[in-house]
Amino acid sequence: MKIKVGQGFDVHRFSQNRPLILGGVEIPHDRGLAGHSDADVLLHAISDAILGAIGQGDIGRHFPDTDPTYEGADSAELLRTIWGMVEQAGYHMGNLDATVITQTPKMAPHIPMIRERVAQLVKADVTDVNIKATTTERLGFTGREEGIAAMAVVCLVRE
Ligand SMILES: Nc1ccn([C@@H]2O[C@H](COP(=O)(O)O)[C@@H](O)[C@H]2O)c(=O)n1
Ligand SMILES: C[C@@]1(CO)OP(=O)(O)OP(=O)(O)OC[C@H]1O
């Protein structure tokens, strides 16, 4: 059995008049996130963790923000493409653990739906996917509600 581990981290700033998409799920909030794509900071961190594990650089290398093809892109579709690379390499999800770092909104009510969605995207059992949230106790850019950060760790397995 071969195991590969990867980590990912991403940040997007809040922006008015945009939907807030986290983990492929639209979350009710008074602001969304700015970005070239749909700015799904959680899926970007997860995507980078997966790309890291398979030694394939990062999301910007595969989907450059200078390419109009990806303007307004659905990050779930980008993750689907990345997951195809994982399957091509013969790996499946061992487990995934991710943290959304934000002062608002309260994430707890939305975590079960995000967990299901992420598990579906990486073809994993929901018990092998963990999504959590933390504030930074009003400290720093997340504490000032300027943006959202996310981090993720994945373990990929090949039998
Ligand atoms: N946006 C958030 C942030 C946190 N939570 C939940 O609250 C717990 C306590 O957060 P602290 O930052 O005060 O440690 C945390 O463990 C999460 O369960 C949340 O739902 N949404
Ligand atoms: C996803 C991409 C591509 O649309 O754009 P953004 O939404 O700006 O996201 P970021 O995490 O800054 O970098 C990856 C990009 O290439």
TrEMBL record:
Pathway: Isoprenoid biosynthesis; isopentenyl diphosphate biosynthesis via DXP pathway; isopentenyl diphosphate from 1-deoxy-D-xylulose 5-phosphate: step 4/6. A divalent metal cation binds at D10, H12, H44. Binds 1 divalent metal cation per subunit. It is an enzyme of class 4 (lyase). Keywords: Isoprene biosynthesis, Lyase, Metal-binding. The record marks H36, T135 as: Transition state stabilizer. PROSITE patterns: ISPF (PS01350). Its EC number is 4.6.1.12. Residues 3-156 form the 2-C-methyl-D-erythritol 2,4-cyclodiphosphate synthase domain. GO terms for molecular function: 2-C-methyl-D-erythritol 2,4-cyclodiphosphate synthase activity. The keyword Lyase applies. It comes from the Bacteria. Its cofactor is a divalent metal cation. It catalyses: 4-CDP-2-C-methyl-D-erythritol 2-phosphate = 2-C-methyl-D-erythritol 2,4-cyclic diphosphate + CMP. Signal peptide: none annotated. 4-CDP-2-C-methyl-D-erythritol 2-phosphate binds at residues 10-12, 36-37, 58-60, 63-67, 134-137, 141, 144. The keyword Metal-binding applies. Gene3D superfamilies: 2-C-methyl-D-erythritol 2,4-cyclodiphosphate synthase (3.30.1330.50). Homotrimer. Belongs to the IspF family. Involved in the biosynthesis of isopentenyl diphosphate (IPP) and dimethylallyl diphosphate (DMAPP), two major building blocks of isoprenoid compounds. Catalyzes the conversion of 4-diphosphocytidyl-2-C-methyl-D-erythritol 2-phosphate (CDP-ME2P) to 2-C-methyl-D-erythritol 2,4-cyclodiphosphate (ME-CPP) with a corresponding release of cytidine 5-monophosphate (CMP). This is 2-C-methyl-D-erythritol 2,4-cyclodiphosphate synthase. It comes from Desmospora profundinema.
